[in-house]
Amino acid sequence: MAMRACMGWIAVTVVLWACGAQPPDRTSIGDDSGSDSDSGADGGQAPDDGGATPSDAAPDAPGRACAPGSKRCAGNAPQICDSQGAWHDQTACTNQTCISGSCTGVCAPTQNTCDGNGVETCDASGQWGNPVDCANQTCSGGACTGVCAPGQARCASNTMLQTCGSGAWQDQPCTQPTPTCSGSFPGPSCVCSTGTVCSGTCVDETTDVSNCGYCGHSCVGCMAGVCPAITLASGQDYPSGIAVDSTSVYWTNSGTPGWSSGTVMKVPIGGGSVTTLASSQAGPSHIAVDSTSVYWTNFNDGGAGSVMKVPIGGGSVTTLASSQGAPSGIAVDSTSVYWVNYTSGTVMKVPIGGGSVTTLASGQDHPQEVAVDSTSVYWTTWSGGTVMKVPIGGGNVTTLASGQAALASIAVDSTNVYWTNYSDPDGTVMTVPIAGGSAMTLASGQSAPAGIAVDSTSLYWTNDSGPTVMRAPIGGGSASPLSLGGSGTLGPWGIAVDSTSVYWTNNTPGGAVMRVAK
């Protein structure tokens, strides 16, 4: 019997060990003092963790601080409860916030950062709050610091700009071509206070003798952006038409209309002695020049008008055409001389060496001025208000523009024809393609624009009533004066240009021939 009881105890012990329980106190085996009911109660109670999962164990169970598997935050570090009911630290949240035992969000509590020039602070949910602007400081490392904000600038002196860098003022000396610090805080800058940068240098176009009025306009003096005109000849008797070659300036003195007191004159382009090439002319008007000769028209409106020629060095005067009807404008090419007869309304030509006179067009309404290129002859009609052309060999006459008012002078280049509408104060300078098309106004509000000339970039004209000599881009743009009213600009009329200068006549008694740098 005792052996059976022993074997039973061993069997129970093995089973209990297999189940992970502690074997019963061996002293209770065979202890006759224990009743059946005590033995039954012991066998029905679970041990402390009795095989239950950690999450099932109550956090307040004896000897346990938490329920296994539960989580919490200790500061900004998660903790997790192990199977024995003890809290274990996890890796602290980096740039996140610990909430309910997990790292979440995009930032850590009270962490600061910069958003633009504002400070953002991390809120309790791990999200960045609205930035607070640093105003006149710089946000750096999540804090407002320094004495200025990015993008701010100030003038420390007339020539010293300071810009904000890393919260501190940094010197930025103002040098050419923007040598002046100008503007109010917080946005001044280095500027060209005189308004114009020419070839990398800030200049005052109102006084700079190398950039007078515009870049590259060089002259002896500069006043209010205008070069003083140089007088090449004075005391002239109503100087009118003007032409220029590489060495000299040529002009006509009309003298008293109807009288044979006119002259044809020349002077070196740099100034010097004035030479009379022809005298006793009957109202010499317009003039042209080639490599050998000077040509002009004697207007004489008594019906005895003529077209004349003289060598550029002086010599015998030759009549190329006579008995013309008040010949006015004149032009020359390599073979012929062209002119218009104001009263008889014709456009004419004659060989430069003399010969038969040819009529290119007739029935014109007071043709005033003429120009020529390699293919055509162009003219204006004073009363008719038209701009016309005809082939240099003769042929169909074409109207390029109509409805114009008191057309005065005309010029031509490789693409366009240019002319002046002589009216005050609403005179205009106009252009139209040589092949025809829409006329375009290049300058308006002019005071009786008279003579006109053109080079590869600009148009030049005289304002008789201005009195001014003007310049404007050939493609259109602002017109600017080359010479203003004064002793050098009284009744400016005829105009001519070369590569460096502009020349004109002041068509008054005791008038002058003038020059100014382009």
Polypeptide structure, described:
- This protein has 518 residues and is mainly beta.
- It has 3 domains: 96-145, no CATH class; 153-193, no CATH class; 230-517, Neuraminidase (6 Propeller).
- The protein contains 2 helices and 45 strands.
- The protein has a 4-stranded antiparallel β-sheet with strand order 18-45-44-43, with no helix packed on it.
- A hairpin with a 2-residue loop joins strand 6 and strand 7.
- The N and C termini lie far apart (143 Å).
- The model is unreliable at 1-58 (pLDDT under 50).
Arithmetic mean of pLDDT:
87
Side by side, the strands of the main sheet go 18-45-44-43
Beta fraction of the residues?
A: over 45%
User: How many helical elements?
Assistant: 2
Layout: helices, strands, pairs:
Layout: H1 2-18, H2 36-44, E1 71-74, E2 77-81, E3 87-89, E4 97-99, E5 102-104, E6 112-115, E7 118-121, E8 132-133, E9 138-140, E10 143-145, E11 153-157, E12 160-165, E13 168-173, E14 180-182, E15 189-191, E16 196-198, E17 201-203, E18 230-237, E19 239-244, E20 248-253, E21 262-268, E22 275-281, E23 284-289, E24 293-298, E25 305-311, E26 318-324, E27 327-332, E28 336-341, E29 346-351, E30 358-361, E31 367-372, E32 376-381, E33 386-391, E34 398-401, E35 407-412, E36 416-421, E37 427-433, E38 440-446, E39 449-454, E40 458-463, E41 468-473, E42 480-483, E43 492-497, E44 501-506, E45 509-517
Antiparallel strand pairs: 1-2, 2-3, 4-5, 6-7, 7-8, 9-10, 11-12, 12-13, 14-15, 16-17, 18-45, 19-20, 20-21, 21-22, 23-24, 24-25, 25-26, 27-28, 28-29, 29-30, 31-32, 32-33, 33-34, 35-36, 36-37, 37-38, 39-40, 40-41, 41-42, 43-44, 44-45
